[in-house]
Amino acid sequence: ASFNLFLLPGDGIGTEIMVEVEKVVAWFQARGIARFETERGLVGGSAYDVHGKAISDADMALAQASDAVIFGAVGGPKWDAVPYDARPEAGLLRLRKDLGLFANLRPAICYPALADASSLKREIVEGLDILIVRELTGGVYFGEPKEIVTLENGEKRAVDTQVYSTHEIERIARVAFELARTRRNKVSSAEKRNVMKTGVLWNQVVTRVGREEFADVELEHVLADNCAMQLVRRPKQYDVICTDNLFGDVLSDIAAMLTGSLGMLPSASLGETDPVTGKRKAMYEPVHGSAPDIAGKGLANPIAMIGSFAMALRYSLDLGDAADLLETAIAAVLDSGLRTADIAKVGENTVSTKEMGDAVIAALDRL
Ligand code: NAI
Ligand code: MG
Question: Is 63 a member of any domain?
Answer without folding.
Answer: yes
